Amino acid sequence: MIDLHSHVLAGLDDGPPDMAGSLALAHAAARAGTRVMAATPHVGHRYPVVPGELAERVAVLNEALAAARIPLDVVVGGELAASRAADLAIPDLEAIALGGSSCLLVECPFVASGGVLPALATHFRDLGFRVLLAHPERSPECHQDPELLPELVEDGCFVQLTASSFAGDFGRTVRRYAHALLAAGLVHVVASDAHDAADRGPEMLDTVARAVRRAGLPPEATGFLTEDAPRALLEDTALPRFPVRGRARRVWARRR
Predict the structure, then answer these.
(1) Where residue 27 sits, what CATH number does that domain have?
(2) Which residues face 158 on adjacent strands?
(3) At a CB cut-off of 8 Å and minimum separation 6, what does 77 contact?
(4) Percent of the residues in the chain that have a pLDDT greater than 90, as a whole number
């Protein structure tokens, strides 16, 4: 699997406090079948994350992983808060793009933001970036405006859900919305958003497979969400066709 959203870097945000915690998280991810993990610390005003320093921090972690014989490749990234987007110059945006690609992981706001997401998506697209929207199933703004996310997808954004949302870890409302988005064909990537090895861990394969079955999708959809689409975003290539059973859903057909 390829996990495009994690907080595996130590001492930067609300992820592991030290290298031991990072290695424990990485070990759990590798044991669960993840082979590539994007380190996406919060890039906002709450934590002192410096985009230009992330590549070196990722290199140090990869050296520690090799020394510990943990078969996981960590790539650079960042979870960009909408409140910080206007502050960052293009070199800073490039420094937090996923794996050195043109794809930015943009956090969907947890509070009302006055419709900032469409404006941000247009801004980043004009700068030559792709936009991967982080956990919109947890964003009140997306819940309150049912047309917001379909319109963003139609405009070229990609959608990343958190695996544990399907399991109800963020409540029943989020769980129902996550399942509805998957059934509607509005999901491109499922990631762990892991913060540690246990409480918010990196395991996700079984949860995604169950959600795929519940949505009536073929088994190949699990690989699309956890490997095929994430790889295409990292490699700046076109996403493969989303696996559907029978007639494609109306929203997905419109997107295609």
Answers:
(1) 3.20.20.140
(2) 132
(3) 4, 5, 38, 39, 40, 54, 96, 97, 98, 99, 105
(4) 87
Q: How many CB atoms lie within 10 A of CB 91?
A: 9
Amino acid at 21: G
Report how far residue 98's alpha carbon sits from residue 101's, in angstroms, rounded to the nearest whole number. 6
Average pLDDT of the segment spanning 163-179: 97
Q: How confident is the model over 143-157, as pLDDT tens digits?
A: 999 999 999 999 999
User: Which of 128, 126, 106 is closest to 117 using CA atoms?
Assistant: 106
Closest CA to 95 of 107, 77, 83: 77
Contacts of 129 by beta carbon, 8 Å cutoff, 6+ apart: 93, 97, 102, 103, 104
- 3-state SS string for 100-166: HCCEEEEECCCCCCCCHHHHHHHHHHHCCCEEEEECHHHCHHHHHCCCHHHHHHHCCCEEEEEHHHH
Confidence of residue 111 (pLDDT cuts 50, 70, 90): confident
**Cα 240 from Cα 166, distance rounded (Å):** 23
Q: Find where tokens 């544990």 sit.
A: 164
* Containing structural domain, residue 123: 2-255
Average pLDDT rounded to a whole number, residues 212-217: 96
The number of domains in the chain is 1
